[in-house]
Each structure stands twice: as C-alpha cells, then as structure tokens.
Amino acid sequence: MKFGKEYVSQMIPEWQQAYMDYAYLKTILKDIEASRQRSDKPQAAALRRKLSMRRAFSGLTKRYSFNVSAIDSDSPDVMVSAVTREDGTDSIETTFLKAAEAGGDTELMFFRTLDREFNKVNDFYRSKVEEIVKEAVALNKQMDAFIAFRVKVEKPSSSWNFTESVSVDMNALASEGSASQSHRRTLADQMGSKVEDTAHERRSNDTENGTLPSLDENVMSDQTPEGFKRERESPMDVLGHITLNNTLETPQSTIRNILKVTKQEELKFTRENLKKIEERLRQVLIEFYHKLRITKNFSFLNTLAFSKIMKKYDKVASRNAAKPFLEMVDSSYLTSSDEINNLMLRVESTFVEHFANGNRSKGMSLLRPKVKKEQHRITFSTGFLAGCTVSLIIALALIIHVRNITGKEGQKLYMETMFPLYSLFGFVVLHMIMYAANIYFWRRYRVNYPFIFGFKEGTELGFSQVLLFSFGLGTLALSSVLLNLDMEMDPKTNDYKTITELLPLFLVIILIAVALCPFNIFYRSSRFFFLAILFRCVAAPLYKVNLPDFFLADQLTSQVQALRSLEFYICYYGWGDFRLRQNTCRSSDVYKTFYFIVAVTPYWSRLLQCLRRLIEERDSRQGLNALKYFLTILAVCVRTAYSLDKGIKWKVTAWVFSAIATFYGTYWDIVVDWGLLQRGSRNSWLREKLLIPHKSVYFIAMVSNDNGKSLIEPKRVPVSVPLKRVFFPFLQVLNVVLRFVWLQTVLDFRFSFLHRETMIALLASLEIVRRGIWNFFRLENEHLNNVGRYRAFKSVPLPFNYDEDKDS
Q: CA–CA separation, 735 vs 731, rounded Å?
C-alpha cells in the first residue's frame, strides 16, 4: 500500500483537518515535475548533441571526464528559521533561495504551503498537549481522593491519624500487598510534579539550543495545581472537601430535579462506594490513555508525512532541501516534546499498580485497545445462511405456485391470520439488512459510528455480524412458514391445527430468549446495549436524551407495522383465537383503541425526548422538532381512523394533516438532519463538507461533470463511477418519494393480485428502506459535526467533586 493511502487510513477521522494535507502537496509536486520536464527538453537536446560530439572525438579528449548526473549537493536551496508570531507562539518560515530559476514560482508555492501545513499541525498538537496536561492535573486530585477513600474504608481505625506513617500506609494499601511497589509514588506525583519537572528541563534545553519550547511558561504555571506550588497537605485532609459525583440517572432523580427537591447525601465510606469509585476511575484512566495514544500517533504520523514529502521533493526537483527542513522539524515541539511519552509511562505504571494488582500483562491488556479480528467462520456462516434464505424463498414461491395455494378457499383466512404473524420477522430482517448496509458504507467513508453511538471499545458489530443475525432469523422464519404450510396440507397432521398455529409464537419466544440471554454468547454486550437504549426510549422523558436514544426511537417510528403485529400476537394468542383460526381482534373496541396507541407510541416517545432536550438545552430547534412529531401523531391517528371508518370527512382530514406532516418532515430530513441545502455553501446548496466524492450523490438536480472534493478519501472498492452517479441520487429521490406512501392509505389503491395485508406489508417495507437511507446521511452529518469540533474522545465523568470545582 502506498504511503498516501496508509496515511489516510491511519488518520483520526475527527482530526483529519488538523493533519498535514499530504495529497495537496503531492499535486504541487506533480506541477513541479511537469514544469521541469518542459524546461528540460531543450537542455536535453543540446546535451545529446554535446555527448554525440564527445563520443566522436573520444580519442582526443580522454584527459577530460564528464559526469551528467553530478549535482552540487553542498549549496543550500532553502533556509529554515523559527519566527515568533504576534500571539507569542513560534512558527517556522522557509525561504526558497532558487525562486529566480525556471519553475521557481511553483516551488515557492510548495514551501509556503508546507510552512502553513507544518505550523497548523504543530499548533494543533501543542493545544492538545496543553489540554492533556490540564486533564492530568485533574486526575492527580482524583487519585489523591481515591487513595484516601480506600484507606478510610480498609483501615478506618488509623485513617484519621495525620502523620507521615499514614501516607506510607496509603501507598502500601494502593499496591495491594506488593512489597516491592509499596514505596512507589502516587499518580499525583507521577502525573503532576514529573510533568512540571520534565517541562522545566525541556524549556531549559530548548532555550540553550535555540529551539521551540515544549510548553509555554504561563500555560504551565496555570496548569500547575496549588498542591505543587506549596507543601502538599496531609493526605487524609482531602476527604474533608470532596463529594461523590453521582452520574447514575434514575427516574426518581429526574422527578426530584423537576420538583427542585435537593437531596444532600453524606459521603459514605463503604466498600460498595469504593468499588464504584474504582470502576469509574479505571474507565477514566483507560480513556485518558487512549487519548495519549492517539495524540502520540498524531505526532508520529505527521512527522513521517513531512519526511516523505520532503524526500519526494528532493527527488522531483533535484534539490537539497530535505535535510535543513527536517532538522527544524526534529527540533520543533511536534517531534521533540516528550510530555506525552512520559505521561504514557506513568499512566501505565499507575494503572498496573493500583488497578491490576501489579500484574502488568493484565493492566496493559485493559489499557490497550482491543483489535477486532475478522473471523472466517462468521463470513462462512453468513454466506451459508444467506444461501439458505434465498433457497427457502424460492422453495416457498414454488410450493405456492405448484399447489395453487392462492386459489384455495382458505387463502383469505390464512392471509388475515398467519400472514400478519410472520410479517413481523420480515420487517425485523429487512431493517437489520439495511442497518448492515449502513455499517458497510459508514466504514467505507470512515464515519466513526462506534464513537458516535458510544459502543464499548471492541464490541461494536460489523456488517457481517449483523447480516449473520438477519439471515439466521430469516432462515428460521421461512422454515417455520414452510413447515406450517406442509402441516396444513398433510392429511395426517391436518387435525392438529393448534400445533401449526403455535409455530410463530415459538419463534417469537426464541427471539426474545436470545435477546434476554444473560450468558456471554450471541454478542451479549451489543444485545444489552440495545435493551438498555430501548428501555430509555420507553421511559422517555425520565432519562437524559443522548444520540443513541433518539436514533433508536427514530428507528421505531419506521416499525409501526411491526409493533401492530406484536399487538396482533397478544390478541390472537391471548384471546384464544389460534385454537379455531379465527380473527375476532378487528371487531373488538379494545383492539381498535390500542391500534391507535401502538401506532403513535414511537412518535410520542420522540416528542417527549424533544421536549426534554428543549427544556435542558434551551435549543429552539428541539421545539420545532417536537412540532414535527406532534403533526405526525395527528396524521397517523387520522389515517388510522380513516382506515377503520371510510368517510369523506376523515379522508379530507387525513389528506390535510398527512400533507403538512410529510412536507415538514421532508424539509427537516434534508435541511436539519442531513445538513443539506445550505445557502452560500461552496458546494452549491449542499454543505461545506462532504464525505462522498460526487456531489450528485447529494443533489440529483446538479448535472455536472465536476466532482465535489471529498473530506475523507474513501477506501477503494470495485464500484464503478456510473453506478455511484446513478445509485446514490436514486436513494436521495427515493427518500423523498417514500415519504408519500401514505397516499395509498388515503387513495385506497386496490390491486386484484395483492391481498390487503400484502399491500400493508409492502408499504411498511418501503418505510424501512427509507429509514435506512436516512440513517446513512444522518450519521454522516453527525460525524462531520464532530470533525468540525475535533471531538474524538468520549467524556467519562470523574468519581469525585471538589468544593472548588462545584463553586466554579
């Protein structure tokens, strides 16, 4: 793999604008190469004439030697110097000394761009290191409180003796009985004073050498806590001015906040609290170490990129500019600062000592990210189950055609009873396939969906795992359908109708059992994550709304028909209709009432989520979003009423509310959720940043051969450009068209070859497809928002609150 592709693949997607623009510098090098080729043509012709003359008189000129490739490598081509800017920060400035030569203007532009890119990278790295040092200072205080809290719990009799022996006991306790580690310093010493000492040494050395300083003096003094400027206070005194940071949100806490009932909780020194604090602080350190690794990789990758581009420049332009420039890079803050390396070593030592009982292999396995390995058995199983699903669909179609099931008397009764039961699995499988397609395209265009959704590192499912689940469920459902039909037509089993009717119920029970299985099989982490988010959606607005909450609630709004199928399950099996295969549900007023309630429940959940965000965030857009779901609720209720009572008043009302909700929802999808149709954008009514290289993907009305510049270069896959230009715009138009599927409900189209239940299932499937299209562009917009704000890390709340933190 070429370095350019490897460089892009290793970028942090949210920081990609802060990296050196390697691709753009390569384009300038191509211009330099083309310019040199044009200027070297006449010189090459003259050189060939001289060489031919020289060969003709070689016998007379043996005294002289001529080396065409000789280049004077001692003469400098550039001069690199450090410059102090107005804000007090340092930057580099490269002076190109051969600008008067042919093509020198292009090379001059190359060095100006190179300086700009390096200063951008260097400034960004410096700012991130400063943030990390500030965070390390906060972790000092957290570790002080943690060790003091553990001493108070483990040794309550001696915990309040403010003597030097207590401090020694604290370190001994923190090492969990390891005698060799009992006198190690705490994280406060390791991550605070050493950082300051190292930074002081770096500043002294850099001042002597005339290079850039590692950290600004004023910044370092601001980041140094008071405990480092004076003699450290007694270790146990810290417990007098801290409180536990209770971030566990419950419905009771939400209600208390609404009623403004404050509950003062005393700091309880219990083993249960100690376990919670230790777990929280462990997660904080793991995330902090992850941040250190990413920042270190940022420095290494950019340094390597500058080295590569300068070597290419020397090769293309036949210059000697790489050495002086790279010497300045080596002495810059980007390369020479060692705060990150020192912090990584100290975090490793501290984590192993305090959270892994001195077991380094165990501690490092927790700190380092989990690398997911592609398993061939998953690929094989997915392909096998996909083949089974396709084969069963073909077999079902052939059985229906050969046995002429659609022409028999019981066809209508079967469609009204069994088809709604089995269609539930079809809706679930289709939604999972669309989600797998979303994951594939998110990965291809480097959308960081695990970070956006907040998945635990290494537990997110790939598209192959999702397809494995979907095809597995599809195989079970289709096998149940074929078994049901065979038992109905077999004379020996024709009397056992109760058994045949119970097959869908058995399948639902198996599906629920797998979802609730407590054992670590079938991707337990992902299943429990889904169930937790589902519970938060049901319990809205009693929980703070995060992106996974409203994203899943939006998925449920496209599964209204699946929820109605669940209602039919309860009615059909709960009221005993399955024993006689009769459908008395639709004649029940209770069923009709819940038919309304089930349809509006997902929209009601989203409405409550929007209202909570409106109150908490004071964002007027959340109020407008709540209005969208309120209009949708009215439209769904009116259309449901019209489907049950065909009257002209209900029809007109359904037309009005459905049209308003559709146009409002379409505008919200494109402009707000997708961030498109922005006036004044450089991408012609789209948005400033795009992931997909072709503008036609976003805007079908644009007929142009000019490709929009992609923010992130996608991984190359064998997909032709014409397919891209047709497929993606088709999806854009399809999303708008599918919002009008409610027209069938109002206009009541009827097809002789389609049963009513089949038409309902097709329309529900189209809505699921529309939701899958929405998912990709919605998460792309969220990812670009993270890119614009350089958000690449999730924030883990700290376990302790200090009094001064609460005051601030």
A: 6
Distance CA 156, CA 145 (A): 15
Residue 718: count of CB within 10 angstroms of its CB: 5
- Two structure tokens written together for 590: 């209770």
245 exposed, middle or buried (CB, 10 Å; 0-12, 13-18, 19+)? middle
Contact 121, 19 (CB under 8 A): yes
Query: Which DSSP string do the residues of 563-621 spell out, in sequence order?
Result: HHHHHHHHHHHHTTGGGTT---STT-HHHHHHHHHHHHHHHHHHHHHHHHHHHHH--HH
Indicate the burial class of 415 (C-beta count within 10 angstroms; 0-12, 13-18, 19 or more): middle
Residues 137, 141, 145, CA angle at the centre, nearest 5°?
Answer: 165
Contacts of 758 (CB under 8 A, 6+ apart): 415, 419
Which of these, 4, 212, 23, lies nearest to 113 by C-alpha position?
23
- Tokens describing residue 574: 């709960």
Residue 708: per-residue pLDDT: 36
Q: What amino acid occupies position 348? A: E
User: Cα–Cα distance between 166 and 168 in angstroms, integer?
Assistant: 5
Cα→Cα distances 754→480, 574, 749, 761, Å = 23, 29, 11, 11
Question: Of 20, 25, 24, which is closest to residue 317 (Cα–Cα)?
Answer: 25
Q: Which helix (H) or strand (E) holds 81?
A: strand 78-84
Distance CA 612, CA 258 (A): 11
Spatial CB neighbours of 146, under 8 Å, sequence gap ≥ 6: 277, 278, 281, 354, 799, 800
pTM exceeding the 0.90 threshold for the entire prediction: no
Name the token pair of 726: 């047709």
Choose the most confident range, by mean pLDDT, from 181-195, 506-520, 569-583.
Answer: 506-520
Q: Using CB atoms within 10 Å of the CB of residue 139, give its burial: 0 to 12 exposed, 13 to 18 middle, 19+ buried.
A: buried
- Interatomic CA distance for residues 609 and 623, integer angstroms: 10
Q: Is the CB of residue 638 less than 8 Å from the CB of residue 658?
A: yes
Residue-by-residue DSSP string for 767-808: HHHHHHHHHHHHHHHHHHHHHHTT--SPPPPPSEEEHHHHH-
Distance of CA 151 to the CA centre of its chain: 40
Contacts of 386 (CB under 8 A, 6+ apart): 467, 471
What are the structure tokens assigned to 680, written together?
């004044």
The dihedral through the CA atoms of 13, 16, 19, 20 has a sign that is: positive
Tally the C-alpha atoms within 13 A of residue 205's C-alpha that lie toward its C-beta. Answer: 14
Is residue 769 within 8 Å of 734, Cβ to Cβ?
yes
756-788 vs 547-557: helix crossing angle, rounded to 10: 160
CA–CA dist 284, 795 (Å, integer): 8
**Higher pLDDT pick, 373 / 148:** 148
Classify each residue of 307-330 as buried b or exposed e, where b means 16 or more C-beta atoms within 10 Å of its C-beta. Answer: ebbbebbbebbebbbbebbbebbe
Whether 196 shows a pLDDT value over 50: the answer reads no
Stated as kind and residue range, the H or E segment containing 92 is strand 90-96
Integer Cα distance of 602 and 559 in angstroms: 9
Of the listed ranges 43-47, 337-341, 431-435, 756-760, the least confidently predicted one is 43-47
Helix axes 560-574, 411-444, angle to 10 degrees: 140
Listed by start position, the domains of the chain span 113-369, 674-789
Take residue 131 and report the two structure tokens written for it.
């943030």
Report CA 225 to chain centroid distance, whole Å: 34
Element (H, E) at 84: strand 78-84
- Tokens representing residue 784 in the block: 């670009």
What would the two tokens of residue 428 be?
A: 């679930």
3 state DSSP class of 176: coil
Q: State the Rg of the chain over Cα.
A: 34
